[in-house]
Amino acid sequence: MAATTNGQEVSAWRDARSSEAQALPDNRAVGCALLVIDTFDVPLSLKELYDLSDVVVEGVVAATFPSREIGRGLETDALIDVTSVWKGSNTIRQVLISQAGGTRGRFCIAPTQYALVRPGEKCILFLREDDRRNLRSQHRRCAIM
To answer: Helix (H, G, I), strand (E, B), or coil: what is residue 91?
Structure first.
């Protein structure tokens, strides 16, 4: 994963940092960075994507949650109400997904290869179980393929 910025954003970030950073509670930079994710194993077909997934669901984004810091980046969770299970247990009613990127205060990290999901959007998700132990949740947590 690598974060990049274009010249205008870097200039705006420098101007904002020098004049307004004191006003921010955590003294973080003000601005937005673009996020480009390097992918290694890109499935070559829909069948391969399906086969590599632990769970495939159709659903509606019920809610998104405030972005949180993960290392040097941001991550945003979204709760999905499952309307149909295409692969996995038929008892799945909700899944919690995490996407790299988001906004925290006046700082954002904007993914360039996808959009963060928003409440009300319909989606088909190809997922893997997210087994990170440092993220606790009452919902089944999955990572997007």
So the answer is: coil
pTM score:
0.69
pLDDT tens-place string over residues 17-72: 333 333 344 555 567 777 777 766 778 899 999 999 999 999 999 999 999 888 88
54: left (phi over 0), alpha (psi -120 to 50) or beta: alpha
Strand stretches in the chain, DSSP E: 2-4, 31-36, 55-64, 68-70, 73-87, 94-100, 102-104, 107-111, 122-129, 141-144
Q: Alpha-carbon distance 6 to 43, whole Å?
A: 30
Domains in the chain and their CATH numbers? 2-144 (2.40.50)
